[in-house]
User: What shape does this take?
Amino acid sequence: MPGFELFGETERKHVNDVLENGVLMRYGFDAMRNGHWKASAFEKAFAEKMQVRHAQLVSSGTAALTVALASAGIGAGDEVIMPVFTFVASFEAVLALGAVPVLADIDDTLALSPGAVENAITGKTRVVMPVHMCGGMADLNALRSLCNSHNLLL
Assistant: This one.
């Protein structure tokens, strides 16, 4: 959710480097870059930090959810369980792929209720997508256990 943002000198320097270079696009313009590939360098550093082979920068949280679902093979007719109290990007990502959002109730923490998720699972369910709203964290251990027992993605 939008909030107060604080940008320090390091962040300002990185943004100014891109602005001064004049190349705002991620790809192309090789001759103008003078060897500066901020996005690629960050992806590499982030992948190393996370100890994974690949990391992919995207333009927004909506794009991140869409890419994550698409890379998991989610598509037309697949059901994605999400909380009734959510952010619009959750719906946008699911609907963009032709999948079906299935709403499940929340608990006292304002997060997805594992019991409600279990009741919402059908033969078409492929993903459980918790959304942590207003600082309330979903019970990821319970959801992971539930997903493992039903062979679902979390």
In short: The chain has two domains: 9-50, 61-150.
